[in-house]
Amino acid sequence: xxxxxxxxxxxxxxxxxxxxxLYEELNSETTVNxxxxxxxxxxxILGDDRNYFDEIVIDKSIFSNNFKNQIKxxxxxxxxxxxxxxxxxxxxxxxxxxKLIRNMMKDYSHDELIELLKNEYLFSYDxxxxxxxxxxxxxxxxxxxxxxxxxxxxxxxxxxxxxxxxSYKTYMPNDELVSAYVDTLIMEIEHFGRLYKTYPETIYIGxxxxxxxxxxxxxxxxxxxxxxxxxxxxFTVEIGRPDTINxxxxxxxxxxxxxxxxxxxxxxxxxxxxxxxxxxxxxxxxEKYNLALEYEFDSINMDLIIGLNDESEEDVLYSLKxxxxxxxxxxxxxxxxxxxxxALEENNSKVYVDYDKIDKVTKKxxxxxxxxxxxxxxxxxxVGNGENIGYCKSGKESIYxxxxxxxxxxxLGLGLSSISKFIDRDTKELVRHFNPKDIKYYIDxxxxxxxxxxxxxxxxxxx
Length: 463
Ligand SMILES: C[S@@+](CC[C@H](N)C(=O)[O-])C[C@H]1O[C@@H](n2cnc3c(N)ncnc32)[C@H](O)[C@@H]1O
Ligand code: SF4
Description:
By secondary structure, this protein is α/β, with parallel strands linked by helices. The protein is built from 16 helices and 15 strands. The chain has a nine-stranded mixed beta sheet, sandwiched between helices. The chain has a four-stranded mixed beta sheet with strand order 1-2-3-4, with helices on one face. The radius of gyration is 23 Å and the shape is globular.
């Protein structure tokens, strides 16, 4: 699909909004033209079976002086009329609706805020209620946070196979590569750990699949983290794939003060697991979850994805029934995103799910089984323009997930492709630093990329 927005900036946002509305009927030949002339905004779709044209008079009365929103609002109206669709997050194409609302809370009264979200952003009533509910809960959870809070994220970019929705760059965990990576990573941990004088609030080891490398290698990394950063309030390690979980791993994690782990079914339907290329069955998940319970971690998270293999409402209800029986402390429900670099995207796969219906049953399930939503984010190319929601049992929020998604506090990212975020001392702006994405470059050029991150840390707020 081509989207032409002559003379407008923010083209990507307009593209994304158009893509969500026209998803089912798009092909690579489709061209969507928008133009604005004498307060008339027009839409033209070419290359479809039939060409389509419509226009609308620009209504400036409802806007907070935001030209981008005006254009998106009118795109929304025209495409909603054409397709009959309404989107839960209205014109929003960004990934952090809660952060947007938090910032707006500083400038608007409660009533003004609701008006703006409803009339300008076109959020559904349910989305507004959900977002404000989560923000209030987060304010409560974070009330004792220090001003110099920071988190540490460590990336382990290994995984022995590729699920069809996965776009993460991962490598086969062969001994030589893992060993060279772990040595460099430990060098990075030790180097940056020295620059911090206080304990991190949270530490998170993710990937890829951290448990895809030998236990003694993961142990070396965790020993280095504990030595350098000391105690944190929360230490999570993702051990998502059940085929990587065993007693030796669980014992090691428990003995090193890891308090949160993630074991991810994605779905409890074996047909789906096979179709998406997971290397495990639903019963493997149940078996490894029960094994992990023996080690009494503070919290176990499970990830589900809505939209896999065109799962029906009944399929999702079956997964939820299994979740109910296992009763993990955290449940994260993702909406499938067709990400660049995934097999789904490369094969031009189309996904057909009744997102609205499934979204409703998932939310209803959470509410009636003692799970409440505590963080929320969105991704580009997400099915149904929906969202990802982290649910938890009372008192089991992952602080890392909230801090990360709301951009609260610094994040020191370590390891391949990791992203660090620091607040600049002078500008008070959030500055991002990107580690290399190629593993060979990461291993061979430590002294080059390490300097630019060190410079940012020295210049960050609080130093
Ligand atoms: C960093 S990923 C990897 C976790 C781990 N390797 C596993 O597969 O269990 C964390 C979670 O993001 C979600 N995820 C990854 N790709 C996704 C996609 N394209 N759409 C929706 N959710 C996705 C999955 O639920 C996954 O468990
Ligand atoms: S197991 Fe996790 S990291 Fe590996 S391919 Fe699947 S989603 Fe990606």
